[in-house]
């Protein structure tokens, strides 16, 4: 997925920096917590290295994807793929609310792709409720649907707005593609909770934090994927069809609250090694982060340059620099 804040391009930097601090060996049974998990890039990497991974995200679509990447480990029967792709489209919630042909005046997907998404989503739920697919299969197929349908979205990048005319990639006929199964430690656990509440319930060795850096809320940027994941028929509002999201707003996206929730998180975290990804344009300054983390133990920082998230141009954000500095802050409690 073309995901804001994805660490796919930075994964080598993150691995090298983290491993240089903890002196990790493949035989070590470390517990690695990825508590702003997003699409699961970092947690999956450390699962493959043998760590028991605890993943969490307050967004449900992220929870679904991590349920597959972190908790699924063995072979999963994928024989239903052809069946799902052969289904006739149905006029369900996606078509009725995100496609022009329904009269919704929203243009997130073509009519064909919206109906196809509905048919597959409803069938996944039906088969699971009837006990005809396992929990592992349910999250396998649902995570794959979320990942696949995103490639056909008629947006510039995120779901804050749709395009007036159907772009080339969105015009293609939707086809479900299955995600890979990540082989590694099979004892992972995935949560869908507020991180500052979850931190009281878990403990481990390495805590990796990748919170939002700015005021853009993920719940509004990916609200369509959230609704497809939950398929809970929410009441939608406005031109873009936002669902009610007050319970998913992150305090890390507010200049007024970010320092306090970050401090509280560190104070309550039962982990020896804590790493924070952040960049030089975030709500918290480098000095602020250093001062907060230094209260709880030994502090150091690693840096690297990386290119901007490409949606910045489409969203008309005016930046002088084409790259930013990514920091990996480290605390040894």
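Sequence proposed for the structure above (333 residues):
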């Amino acid at each position: 997925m073309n995901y804001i804040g994805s660490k796919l391009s930075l994964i080598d930097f993150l691995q090298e920096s983290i491993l240089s601090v903890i002196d990790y060996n493949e035989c070590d049974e470390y517990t690695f917590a990825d508590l702003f998990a997003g699409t699961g890039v970092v947690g999956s990497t450390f699962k493959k290295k043998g760590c028991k991974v605890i993943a969490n995200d307050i967004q449900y679509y992220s929870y679904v994807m991590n349920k597959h990447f972190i908790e699924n480990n063995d072979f999963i029967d994928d024989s239903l793929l052809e069946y799902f792709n052969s289904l006739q489209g149905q006029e369900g919630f996606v078509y009725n609310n995100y496609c022009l042909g329904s009269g919704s005046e929203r243009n997130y997907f073509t009519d064909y792709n919206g109906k196809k998404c509905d048919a597959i989503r409803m069938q996944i739920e039906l088969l699971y409720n009837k006990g005809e697919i396992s929990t592992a299969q349910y999250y396998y197929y649902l995570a794959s649907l979320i990942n696949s349908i995103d490639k056909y979205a008629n947006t510039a990048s995120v779901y804050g707005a749709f395009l007036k005319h159907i772009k080339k990639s969105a015009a293609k006929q939707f086809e479900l593609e299955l995600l890979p199964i990540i082989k590694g430690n099979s004892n992972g656990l995935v949560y869908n909770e507020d991180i500052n509440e979850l931190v009281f319930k878990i403990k481990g060795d390495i805590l990796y934090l990748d919170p939002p850096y700015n005021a853009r809320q993920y719940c509004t940027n990916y609200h369509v994927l959230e609704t497809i994941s939950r398929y809970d028929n929410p009441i939608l509002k406005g031109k873009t069809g936002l669902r009610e999201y007050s319970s998913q707003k992150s305090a890390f996206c507010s200049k007024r609250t970010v320092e306090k929730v970050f401090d509280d998180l560190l104070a309550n975290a039962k982990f020896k090694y804590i790493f924070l990804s952040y960049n030089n344009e975030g709500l918290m300054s480098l000095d602020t982060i250093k001062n907060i983390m230094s209260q709880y133990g030994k502090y150091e920082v690693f840096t690297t340059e990386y290119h901007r998230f490409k949606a910045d141009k489409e969203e008309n954000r005016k930046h002088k620099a084409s790259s930013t500095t990514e920091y990996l802050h480290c605390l040894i409690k």
